Amino acid sequence: MTGLWCPGCGLTRATHAVLRGHIAAAFGFNLFFPLFLAGTVIAWLAWVRSALGRAPLGWLVRVPARLPVAAGVALLAFGALRNMPGLQALAP
Hints:
The chain is mostly helical. Helix content is 60%, strand content 0%.
């Protein structure tokens, strides 16, 4: 709607590329794709464990509070950088 690339732009194309076996192409669509994929898998595993009545993942409970904040700052910076002139390589 704004004409700007958001940090998530290209994730669907990256997922499609991975499902087709084109791993290198996925990174071309969005550099943060591996982090989004890992976060999705971790969230799904936590949900499945909860649905089965098991305890939450121990290492996930002990994640420092700084980690999600740092990831959010990195995503905002990535979103800003991919819209700057001269950094079109970051755009999908």
